[in-house]
Write a structure and sequence with these properties.
mainly alpha; 5 helices; about 55% helix; about 5% strand
Length: about 70
């Protein structure tokens, strides 16, 4: 296990604004730091799929954290 300081500015700069804002929701759905896998898939694989997904994915994750009424 690696430990240390992570510089977030380069990560946030590389992500679009919606993807960066949705990271807390993404983290909640893919498992906390002490959970190795969610649905048999590791965090690195989830992140790869998240980065390749179209813009609807981060917007949906943002909607979950901003409203009680989730729509299709």
């Amino acid at each position: 296990m690696a430990s240390g300081i992570v510089e977030f500015n380069p990560i946030l700069t590389a992500l679009c604004a919606d993807r960066a804002k949705a990271l807390p929701s993404f983290h909640a759905f893919t498992g906390a730091d002490n959970t190795g896998r969610f649905a048999g898939i590791g965090k690195a694989t989830w992140m790869s799929m998240y980065l390749k997904a179209d813009g609807h994915v981060p917007r949906c994750l943002l909607m979950l954290s901003q409203t009680r009424n989730v729509t299709k």
